Amino acid sequence: MPLVPLSLAAFVAGDLLVQQWAALPPQHVFVLVALVALCAAVCAARLWPNPRPANRLAASILACASGLLLGVAFTGARAGVRLADALSFSDEGREVRVQGVVASLPTVFDGGTRFTAEIERVVPASGGVAAFAVPHNVALTWYGAGAPGTPAVKPAQRWEWTVRMHRPHASVNPAGFDAEAWMFEQGIRAQGTVRHGAHAAAPQLLADRVWQFNPLVDRARAALRERLQQLLQGRRYASVIVALVMGDQGGIGEDDWSLFNRTGISHLVSISGLHITMIAALVAMLAGALWRRSPRLLRLATVPVVRAVAAICGGLAYCLLAGWGVPAQRTLLMLSVVALGRCWRAQLGAMAILAWAAVLVCAWDPWAVLAAGFWLSFGAVACIFLVSNGAVAPAPGWRTALHEGVRMQAAITVGQVPLTLAIFGQVSLVAPLANAVAIPLVSYLVAPLALCGAALAACGDVPAAAAGLLLAAAESVFGMLALVLQWLTAPQWSWVALPLPPAGVLAVAAAGSAWLLAPPGWPMRWLGVCGLLPLFVWPVPRPAAGELWVSALDVGQGMAVVLETAEHVVVFDTGPRYSADADAGSRVLVPYLRARGLSHVDAVIVSHPDIDHAGGARSLLRTLPVDLVWTSIAPGHRLLGDTPRLMRCEAGQQRALGELSLVMMHPDTALYDQARASTNARSCVVLASVGTHRVLLTGDIPARQEQQMLARAATAGQNLHVALILAPHHGSHSSSSEALISATEPQWVSMQLGYRNHYGHPHAQVLERYRAHGVAIARSDETGAVQWRFAAAGTVVERWRRDHARYWFNQPAVATSD
Q1: Residues 65 and 47 in one domain
Q2: Pairing between β-strand 724-726 and β-strand 748-751 as defined by DSSP bridges
């Protein structure tokens, strides 16, 4: 029935529509929407049997409207329920005693463990202190977990902890990863730390294992991961083998992901659909062969039915091992639709199968549409269906099979261009060749070796030697593949970084890809190229002559600012380091610069070596070409690497980049000779200006050095009035003196800091000091990234957390104003 695929696709569109909303209406609105959708569906069903074209058109429109409204109603209702499970702003920072179950694979880092806990109950507080509502799922960090004398944290354990929590909060940046959306999808409605010591009772292990399905599955996955890590200890690509076996990609480093993205094989470095299909097919064959041997069993059910059920069960078991990601869900649901269709002897077309799988995924997890894997996974399968015209029977002969394989891979590469550009900000030109090598190698050699090794490893210590050999062989083969991939990406033309175009251009490009991949006989398929061309030539908004754009990125507790003029780009500070293999340079700065189409940086100014200011410098310097590094950090410092383009900050230095003037205001040369001077005291302070638009970039300069800088400026007769000032030291009480604010008279102050940071930034007295001077305050913990566009016509200010809000965003500024 053609109405069904239409309404199914519209359901997914309705789900996606809700995810674009900044706020949700009351829940009763979704009940009304559902009733309207049902009425539209009834009308469509009554009109469709009439063969008149007008009736068929009206039925199609009503079917689409019904599916869209049902998607809106279903997703909106689910989202409202999840939003209601929230931690109150007034309860942030309070300590509470809770009992809960470890409900995820723990992530061990240097100094602690992170995991998700399902909170079962709040332990009544002593002394009559009122308890408060705690969300069901909380992401906890336990510093010191697993220390000598304490049990290791494992899934399915029941603990009693004292925890201090806050609402889910992450950085919000243009072209940045939306971690708050990810937490919302996972049902994580609070973050917190486990408290212990003099002022909090010690954590207590109540039960080493509870009989709950999901935690027990994660317990088995944790045991298997530990076993695999032991057998692969010291191997370069051990984390990739773990990802192939059980879908845990947490150990794969940034450099490896960069290689996989540039060659277009990221979809293989996990449990892919092909792997699940292979396991399901194997289980189905074994079950059918065993079932056929028993006449009594044959009277109960036919072999095709048994094979279908066995395939679903085998696929489900493997998906659970994989952690139930979107690609695994999609593959299992597609297998289930096909298998059940054969059991019921229903003839389902390729697109109907894809549509049913998409709707079932969205029904199970309405926020799956926010994941890149959803679109990459369904997009790849849709490309295959398009070029094969729905045919699934393999062609005979190896030459024909090879030709079909190359054709399918080329189709996937072309069809995924809009998606890979939107998600990764780049297009791989060697992806067809890389996948032609990687797909058969990973799918038919690496993955089977890894899976067989994992199966033996799970059996105990007896087959450990054989398991280790198989796993080592799988890792060695992947290591050889990685060498080939590195060779492919050596030429600069192997991949192209492109600016992020608007959503409308991406939609046109997706339509162009579909037109280009249409089956033979489709009219003028070459016109699809016209839909793709705007991706490569779409102009990125740039400052006009005489304008200065300043972007204070949201990097948490740290500082990173990008200055743009019509022809030049300057970066002031590079944000913090988050972990051993992640920093603001790779996570925030580089994605932002590439999304803006900025492939070259004229100058990077690193104010001082504190890790929250210089932590991302090395990633930025090795990723993008930089003409000059201006810093107070000594040459050869590990934070900067071996860069020959280093210049020491000294007060009085000047540099002109076109119409952008940079004047170094601090530190004085004498400060470098003072052994007791702190790194904060030596912070580079820069006065940047384009015409009358002036910005003061301050680092962590203390009040004493502020006074020295102001005295030098007064002696030189310098005017320090600015439109924008970066609050020194993130608004600390030791900076932002009355003298500095009076001398600069800023219109705006930018405070880059972490949400509820333990430093207490910004200090209340500093905030009041700026307010007393009528300065508008932009705090990154409340506004996310902020961009100022200074132009002759006036200043335009864009606050990302407010102006690009989604209903799951934490909005502390709204709570404060209330």
Answers
A1: yes
A2: parallel
72 sits in which H/E element: helix 53-84
In this prediction, residue 383 carries a pLDDT of 82
End-of-domain residue from the set 84, 104, 124: 84
Average pLDDT in the chain: 88
Of 448, 446, 409, 395, the closest CA to residue 278 belongs to 448
Is pLDDT of 499 > 80?
yes
More confident call, 149 vs 575 = 575
Higher per-residue pLDDT: 101 or 540: 101
Q: What is the pLDDT of residues 566-594, one digit of tens each?
A: 999 999 999 999 988 889 999 999 999 99
The answer to whether residue 80 sits within a structural domain is yes
Strands 601-606 and 569-574: parallel
d(CA 566, CA 7): 48
pLDDT tens digits along 235-272: 999 999 998 888 788 788 888 988 998 888 887 777 66
Residues 254 and 308 in one domain: yes
How many CA atoms lie less than 13 Å away from 293 in the CB half-sphere?
5
Residue 742 forms part of a structural domain = yes
Token pair of 453 as six digits:
């090794």
Owning domain of residue 156: 89-211
Instruction: Give the H or E element holding residue 67.
Output: helix 53-84
Length of the chain: 818
Residues facing 175 on adjacent strands: none
Are residues 320 and 177 located together in one domain of the fold?
no
Distance CA 611, CA 338 (A): 54
- Looking up tokens 């049997």 gives 49
Mean pLDDT of 208-228: 89
Does residue 404 sit within a domain? no
**Rounded-to-integer distance, Cα 777 and Cα 755, Å:** 16
Question: Is beta strand 626-631 parallel, antiparallel or unpaired with respect to 601-606?
Answer: parallel
Query: What's the domain count of the chain?
Result: 5
- Indicate if 94 and 46 belong to the same structural domain: no
Is 326 contained in some domain?
yes
Residue 690 shares a structural domain with residue 665: yes
Give the CATH number of the domain where residue 105 resides: 2.40.50
Verify that 602 and 469 share a domain, yes or no.
no
- The SS3 of residue 798 is strand
Distance CA(805)–CA(177), nearest Å, equals: 14
> Which residue did the predictor score with more confidence, 343 or 109?
109
Q: Residue 494 pLDDT more than 50?
A: yes
Q: Same domain for 174 and 314? A: no
CA-nearest of 794, 770, 798 to 783 is: 798
Phi-psi region of 641 (alpha: psi -120 to 50; beta: other; left: phi over 0): left
